[in-house]
Fold these 4 entries.
Entry 1:
Amino acid sequence: MSKDKNKMSAEEASMARALAAKDGINQPTAESNTPAANDMEAAVDSAGLGRVSMANFTPDKAQSSDSALGWHVLDQITLPSMGKFYPADSVIKIRSARAAEIRHFSTMDENNYIDMEEKLNSVVESCTQMTAGNKRLSYKDIFEEDRIVLLLSIRDLTFPEPENKLMLAGKAEKSKKKIDVELSVKNLVPSIIDEEIEKYYDDKKRTYVIKTRSAGEIVMCPPTIGVMQEVTQYLKDRNEKELEFDKAFIQVLPYIQGDWRTLSLTKIFQLEVDYKAWDQKKFMIVYRLAERMRIGVQATLEATGDNGELVKAPLEFPGGIKSLFIISDLAGELL
C-alpha cells in the first residue's frame, strides 16, 4: 500500500511539473526584460503592431551556403568567350582545389596529350558549377578556350599567398628592361573575332548564324569541352584501329557540332560522310569561317610596368603545366 502511495506521489509530481511548464508558455519570462525585448515593446507602443518592421529585431542572417562552401561567382566578362555563347541566365561558380584533386592532378603525364587533357578537365569538373536558371549544366558545356581562365582563377583561390604567384620573365616594350610578369587572368590578352564574322552573332540563339550565297545558312560556334572530348575519343578510336582520318574534317568538326550531348563515334562517322559530300565552295567557306572564329588568348601576356610602360612576356608554364597546382619552387617552402 505504501508502495502505491509513493508511486502516486511520483506521478502527481510529474503531472505538476508538466502543468507548470504548460502554464509557463503564456507567462512572461525573466528574459522578456532584456533590452531587445524592451526595444520591441517600445516600438509597438509608439507605432502600432501593424507598422513595426520585425526585420529590425530578427537575428543576423546566416551566410549563404555557397559562401560557406567556398563557391565564388566567376565574372564571365573575363572569359575569352565573354560568356556570349552561354545561356543568357547562366552562372558559373568556382572553388579552390582540394588536396585529393591536387594529388590526382600531380599524376599527369605531360608527354601524353590525352592524359594531360583529362587531368586539366578533372580540375574544372571538380571545382566548377554551372547553372542556367534552375537547370544544372555540366562542366562539358564550358567552352574549351575559356578553360584557362577557370584554371587560373581556381589556382588563385587555392594558393592565395603572394609567394605562390607564377612569375614569367618579361621585357618592357620600349626600354627593353627585364621585368617579371605574373601569369594571371588580368594579364591574359584575349583573341578578338573580327567584325566581319561578329556581325552574324545571334543574341537569341547565342551562336553565329551565317548566311552565304553558295552554302546557304551555316550555324557555327567555338567548341565546348564536351565536344572536344568526343573528338579526342574519335581520334583515339581511329588510331587504335589503325584507321586513317580526314585532318581537314577534324579541324572544322568542333565548330559545326554545337551540342556534345548528341555527339558520339557513330554521329561523327555520319557527319564525316555528309562532309565528304560538300562541294568545293562549301568546304572553303566553312574551313575559313572556322579559322576566323577561334577564340582564346594570345601567346603573349601584357602588363603595365611601374612607369606605365607596356611589358610583355611569353605565355608559358614555368616548370611545366603541372606548376598550375604543384609548387615548382620548393626552396620557397623550406625554412
Entry 2:
Amino acid sequence: MTLRQLATFATVARLGSVKAAARELGVSEPAVSAAVGVLRRELGDDLYHRAGNALVLTAQGERLASLAVDIGALEGRARTTLDAQAPVDRLLHIAVTATVEEHVVGPLLGAFTERTPDVHATVEVEPAARFADLLDHRRADITLGPRPSLAQAPDLVATPFLRHRLVIVAPPSHRLAAREDIAPSELAAERWLVGAEGAGIHSPTAQYFSRARIDPPDVRAFQSDAAALSAVAAGEGLMLALWHATTVELRSRSVVRLSVRGTPVVELWYASTLPEGHCLTGASALRRFAGTPEATQAIAAPRRGVPATLVRAPVHATLWHSVSRG
C-alpha cells in the first residue's frame, strides 16, 4: 500500500462518498475506486459497505481510516520539518455551531491566516452534540463551540477561547423595556425569535428556557442571528442574543436589552482537538491561537469582516484559504 492510497481511503471515510472524495482530491471516481480496491485486496476486507445512501465502515475499515489519518499527519509534519523553505498547505476540517459560524469563524480565521498563511480550511456547521463523535472518528480536525462531551471522548484537548454573554433583547416599544429585575416567568407567553441554531434541545435558547423554567408556545426560527435581530427591531418578538454581536443595535436603540433576572448568561466556547500527536499540526496551532489575546480582539471587533479573497463558498461548507502575497 502507498501513502496516496491511504490518503484516498481516509478521504472516502471522512466524506462518506467516493464521488465527494474524488472531487476533493481532484481525481476521477474510477481512480478513487481503484486505490481503495488495492487496499481491499491487500487487507482481505471490504473496508466499507453501503447501507442505503450511507457509507458504513467495517471494523477493519475504521481502524485503517484512523491509522491513515495518523500517517498522513506524520507525513505532513515530516515535510514541514525537513523542507522548512517550501510552503506546505494544510487542509483543516473545522466543525462549528451555527452561531460560531456566523459570529466567530470569519474574524478568527482571518487573524489566524495572517500568522499562518499556508493553512486552508473547510468549515462545516454541525450540532454541538456531535462534536465528540466528529473528532473521535476524524470527521473534523477541530471543533469550535461548546465543549464536546467528556463522557463520549475523555481524551480530547479542549481549550477555552471565548467567554461570551447572552442577553435578552426586545424592540424599544416593548412593555417591559423600562422595567428592572424582570422575572423570566413574565416572558413565558412572549414570542421568541431564534437564529440558525433554532430552539432544539441543545441550543442556547432551549437551554435558557430549561433553566428559567419557561416553555414559550411561540418560537420562530430565522436563517441567521442577524435576520432574527432585524425581526426583533421590527417588533416581532424577543431574542436571546450574543451581547457583543448586538452592540451596534443597542447603541442605536433599534433594540434594547431587557433587565431579566439571571441575565446576562455567561458561557464559554472551546477549541477542541484530539490529543497532541494524534491531531494535525494546523489543528493544534489553531486551538492554541484561539485562546490568545490577538484572537479575542479579532473576534470582539465589531463586524470588521475579512478580505473576500479568504473565502470561497461551496454548497454545504465554507472553504478558507490564505491571501496570496506579493
Entry 3:
Amino acid sequence: MSNKIEKPALISFENSNFPKRIQSLTISLRRKFMMCDKILLCAFIVLLNCGVIRSQQLPNIVIIFADDLGYGDIEGFGAAYSTPNLVKLQAEGMRFTNFYSQPQCSPSRAALMTGCYPQRVGFPWVVGPEGPEWTRDKYFVGLNPNEKTIAEVLKDKSYATACIGKWHLGHHTQHLPTHHGFDMYFGLPYSNDMWPANMPAFPDLPLVENEKTIEKNPDQSQLVRRYTERAQLFIKQSKKKNFFLYIAHAMPHVPLYVSQQFAGKSGKGLYPDVIQEIDWSVGEVMKTLKNEGLDENTLVIFTSDNGPWLVYGNHAGSSGGLREGKNTTFEGGVRVPFIARWPKRIPSNSSCSSFAALIDLLPTVADITNTKTLPNVIDGKSILPLLLGKSKQNVREVHYYFQINDLQAVRKGKWKLHFPHNYEHVTKPGTDGVRGEITSQSIGLSLFDLEADPGEATDVSTAHPDIVVELKALGEKFKSEMDRDKRQAASSQ
C-alpha cells in the first residue's frame, strides 16, 4: 500500500455533467476573486511607494548648521570664492531664497529643535556659562524637557540620532542633547568665543562627549575636521537603520580658526578659508553617504543660524546686499542660505522664493515620517509641498520677527512692516578678530516691498496705508497671544 498523498485534481467544467448555471456562476466568482487580487496588489504597491508600510522607506535626515554664515557667504548666493560641494548640493536639490533663522545663536537653535518661535519656549536670548555680567540670569537656563524636539519626533520612529557640534540650549548635564532625544553628543555646549582666551571671566571651554568633558579649551583649528570624522563614523555605524544626524559647526563664528590644509587656500582671507573648510566637510559627508549606499534615501539640509556678525569686519561674512546683520531683524540679520537635497523627491537644480523658516523644519520632518500629532502647540508648518515642487504658496500666511521678546516686524507676502524699535548699526568694522564699533539707531513704523526692495531701503508706508493697518493688527494680535501662551524654559537651579 502506497503512502503517497495524491493531490486533488482541479475541477474542469469541460465535458462535465455540472449544470450550465452552476458552471457560469463559478466562473464568474473566480473572475471576481482574480480582480480583487489585482486591486489588493495595486493598493499594496501604492502604499509601499508612499512609504506607509515599510519604515525603511523613510529617509535618513542630515541637517548641517553653520554659525553666523551670512546670506552672501556661499557660491550661488553671492560669494566671490568657490564652494563646490555646496554648489553641487544646489544642483542636485533646491535652494530657498527667502529662508529665515533668528537674530542670534540660542534662539535659532530653539526654533530648529522645537518648531516654535523661541519666545514661545522661553528661549528669546543667548545663554552661556556663568561669566560676564550678562550671563548671571541665564547661565542656569536650558531647553525644557517638556518640549518635544525634532530628535524626539524621530526617536519615536526608531531613528538613531546624533548631535555633533554646537548645542547652545543649556550646558548643564540635564540640558544636554542626550536629554532631548539624541543617542550621542560630541561638541561644544555653547559658542566658541565663550572661553578665557576671549574674556577671562569665562571658564575653560569644554569639549563634551555625551555628558562628559573630555577636553578643555580644545584646538579650534581641528573642530571642523573632528566633527566631520565623527559624523562619518555615525553614518557608518547607523546605516542599517534610519538615522538623524545634526551637525552644528562652531564656524564661522568668531574667533575664526581653520586647519592647516585650508589656511590661505581661498587666497581671499581667513573668513573665506573657513567657509571653504565647511564646504569640504559637506563634501565629505556626502561622499560617505554615497559610499555607504545611502545618499539616494537621505534628505540633506544646509543652512545657518543667523546673518553675519558685521562688527568683526574682515572676520565676518556678507549679508549679500541685505540690510544690517546679526542681532537685528532686518533681512541681513535673519535671511540665510537654505539648500535641501533628496534625490527623486526634491526636484534637482530648483529654486523656491516662498518664505519659510527654521520653525518649519520640525513639522516638515513630522510630515515626512507620518507623525500625526505633537504634544505642544507649535508655530511652524510643513514645507514638504514646497520641497517636492508641488506648491509655490507660502505654508504660513505671516512670518514674525522677534529680537529677544520684542516683536519688531511682520511679513505677509511681499510686504514687511517694521514696528518702531532701536537696533545696532556698525559704524566701524573690526579687523582680524578685533571687535569694531556699533551705535544704536532707530527705525519708525516702516513698510517695505521685499520683492522690489529686499535691501529695505525705501519706506512705502504712506503709499499703502491699508497694508500698514493690516500688518500692524496681525502683529499686535500675535504678540498678545504669545505673551498669554508662552511656555517656560528649564532651570538647573
Entry 4:
Amino acid sequence: MAGTTTGHEGTGATALPHPRVGGRFASPVPPGTGWPGDLADATTPVATSADEVAALAAAAPDLATLGAASSVCRACPRLVAWREQVAVTKRRAFADQPYWGRPVPSFGDDAPRLLVVGLAPAAHGGNRTGRMFTGDRSGDWIFAALHRAGLASQPASTDAADGLELRGVRMLAPVRCAPPDNAPLPAERDTCHLWLRRELALLPDARAVLVLGAFGWTTFLAAARASGWSVPRPAPRFGHGAEAVLHRADGAAVTLVGCYHVSQHNTQTGRLTEAMLDAAIAQAWAAATRA
C-alpha cells in the first residue's frame, strides 16, 4: 500500500493534559494516543507525496478510513512545518494545552444531506482542537447558526470531546492543514483535492453544499468537475446567497449556496450578520431536503 507508518511522533517537549479528558499529550498529538475523535493509530499509513495521497484516498472504502489517512498526511512540507511549529509555539492563551497539530478531518453526519465547505483549519482553532471550526470565533458563529436551525445539538464548540453532534450536516475543508497566513498554495490545494474528491464519492446522499467564501466556492467547483460532475460553463460566480446547480455523474442534482465566510473580519465589520448567515443556512437546507 502507498504511504508509510513513519512520521507519527509528537514533537512538543512537554506532554500536557487535554482540557476536558485529561491525560497527557505531546504536541503535535501522535495518532492512537487517546485524543477524542482521533480516527488514526500508529499503523495508519502516512502519505508523503501527492501520488501517495491519490493512492490512499482511492483505496479508502469508507469515511473512517479516509479520515484516518488524511489526518496523518505529510504530503505538503510547508504545511507540515507550519502546523507543527504552531503546535509547539502555541498562543499564550492556550500555552497550557496540547495542540493537535495535524490535518483536521471532516466532521458531522456520515450520511448528510447538506455539506458545509470552508477554507482550512485555523492555526489556533482546528489545528489546536483537532475538529473543524472548533475553538475559534468562526466556529462560534457557524455552530450557533446551525443550532438555531436545528442542525446542531448545541450552540457552542470548544473541544473535540464537548459532545457536539451535527444532524444531516457534514463539514469539509478543501485544505485540511492550517496554512501560513491562511493562504494555501495552489499545489497544496490540488493535493488536498484528492481527499475531498474521494469524500464526495463516499457521500452519495448530499444534495446541497453551503460554501463559505470565494476560495471554497472555486475549489469545490474544481473538485466537482474533476470528480466527473456536470458543472455549468461559464463557472457560476460566488456571492452571498448565490445559487448554482451541479449534477453528479449519476445525474443527481446538488445545489451550491454561497455564503460570506464566518471570519472575524466579516462578522466584526458587519459584512456577514447573524440574519444573513441564518438565511443562507435556511436556503441551503431547503435545497438539501427538496424532494
